[in-house]
Amino acid sequence: MSDLSITRIGQIRERLRRNGARPAHEQRILRLWSQAKPQNSGSRPLESFMPTAVREDLPGLSEDLSGLLRLQSEHHAQDGSVRWLLALRDGQTVETVGLPRDGVCVSSQIGCAVGCVFCMTGRDGLIKQVGSAEIVAQVAFARQFRPVKKVVFMGMGEPAHNLDNVMEAIEVLGTVGNIAHKSLVFSTVGDPRIFERLPLGSVKPALAVSLHSTQIKLRSELLPRAPQMTPDELVEAAEIYAQKTAYPIQYQWTLLEGINDTQEEIEGIVRLLKGKYALMNMIPYNSVDDLPFKRPSWERAAEIARTLHQRGILTKLRNSAGQDVEGGCGQLRARHLLGSKPLDIAVPNMTNMPKRTMIKLTVSPKKSTP
Ligand code: SF4
To answer: In the chain, what are the domain boundaries?
Structure first.
């Protein structure tokens, strides 16, 4: 019987168990689904090992799982990435990005409570949690079109604010989903809860930490509702996780012209990360007409990366994937919802912000962090 309320892996398991599935049957069904293979794959006929009730329910279950997401639009970029806007069953949309070199970037929330001032997704606060089955479905969707060997949780949302669903999805992807543990990348602004939970999971993902500033005040203005961890506390907790898992921490730094591309920040990064098991990813901001931030020149970004490198910080300068197709997270969805309507953006009072970007000096009230 069709069950349109399925959004979580646990619900799939419950349905299978009600029909008499044993753990091996559950794992097989989740494996084939997450790898976008048909449920009758393999040489043995299902009749020879699958309980009748499970077998009879399989076509309906497969239909329910493929109905978790519906393609709304598709945008190919010159770098080989592709952005999909996918509608959930209730009509809300998530962005999923197929990345060059067999990666996929998934969304874990619709909207986001952190409210980073340079991000379209954070503009309206948290709208909805994405269920664990809906997260795995994004990978299964991508696998219909391209190989997927790496899954990064860097799409819409803060994974730490939807931890149960994200951990459940990571467990499936890192076992039957055939993704190496270190190729699952949990991207976060930092939250004490993840440093408690991640080390306890059977699948331990790699960690990417969005730092963006080494200064407490500026960072809290850029990421207004990130949990109250100072950059020092964040790096200290992340280093313990890096040593435990033997994967380096990937620090993310969106370079904003005149804001966090300063000499002071270079000194702060060297102080915080020197000697740490870490990699710094610098990504020049992808300018959006509706937001008042500017992308620094590539020469300036390269100079910062070179300086950090010379001072002992392993640094990579990257472009965000899909630059030419509404690059940053949430931009595609925002365009879809708003058409070309200009946005009313409140800009925080950043002391070192260049004059031309000082449009409004208030931080707009947003929903609280869950
Ligand atoms: S950058 Fe990430 S954490 Fe910040 S508001 Fe956007 S989705 Fe949320």
So the answer is: 9-66, 70-357
Mutate to test the pocket of ligand 1, among 116, 120, 163, 234 (most ligand atoms within 8 A of CB): 116
Q: Are 270 and 308 in contact (CB under 8 A)?
A: yes
- The pTM of the whole model exceeds 0.85: yes
Residue 95 designated active-site: yes
Catalytic residue among 26, 95, 171, 326: 95
Query: Confidence band (pLDDT; 50, 70, 90) for 120?
Result: confident
pLDDT in tens, 287-312: 777 788 999 999 999 999 999 999 99
Answer whether 159 contacts ligand 1 (Cβ < 6 A): no
First to last CA, the chain: 35
Rounded to the nearest angstrom, the gap between the alpha carbon of residue 123 and the centroid of all alpha carbons in its chain is: 16
Helix (H, G, I), strand (E, B) or coil at 85: strand
Report the separation in Å between the CA atom of 147 and the middle of ligand 1, taken as the mean of its atom positions. 27
At 364, list the tokens. 């707009």
Question: In this predicted model, what pLDDT tens digit does every residue of 331-362 receive, in sequence order?
Answer: 545 544 444 333 333 333 333 333 322 222 12
CATH class of 70-357: alpha beta
Q: Where are the beta strands (DSSP E) in the chain?
A: 70-76, 82-87, 93-99, 103-105, 109-111, 126-129, 150-153, 184-188, 206-210, 249-255, 278-284, 315-317
Please calculate the CA angle 230-273-313 and round it to the nearest 5 degrees.
145
